Amino acid sequence: MSVQATDLRQRLIRNFNTAPLERFQREPLYDTSFAALAPGTAAKKLGASIDIMPPGGRGCPYHYHYTQEEMFIVLEGEGTLRVAGEHLPIVAGDVIFIPPGPEYPHQILNTSKAPLKYLSLSTMEYPEICEYPDSGKYLAKAEAKPGAFRVVQRKEASVDYWDGEP
């Protein structure tokens, strides 16, 4: 390949089968191995990761986004999409669309006896607010890069708009 082709390949292509996985585990419920695919690419508004959950694993808490839209593509296995208070079965080949807003809180669960492998895609729009209905928390963040504004707290901890102002 030419130098230009090599550079283009590095900025535009990722292979989820060879991406190095990181494991996140928080017992007893949360366990997933994942690789973020978009960092280092030319992507400005898209995020992507490969996620592999063992039987019984959950990738993240039940939540919804105010800004970002998500898509999940089930590649292998089966599990459950917990969404809007319901539990929907998901299987390999399913493409899941989650728009922003409180109508679609969601969480993927591996309720099977085999690994569940899926692609996660997101419109990486900022600023972003996520709410977590099970715990009453919210997350506010300005952007994805390290050191950017990011806070997680409960609504009850909110202060009055004029608190601390002269």
From TrEMBL:
CDD domains: cupin_SPO2919-like. One of its GO terms (molecular function) is metal ion binding. Coiled coil: none annotated. Pfam families: Cupin_2. Residues 52-120 form the Cupin type-2 domain. The keyword Repeat does not apply. The keyword Metal-binding applies. Keywords: Metal-binding. PANTHER family: CUPIN TYPE-2 DOMAIN-CONTAINING PROTEIN, OXALATE-BINDING PROTEIN. This is Cupin domain-containing protein.
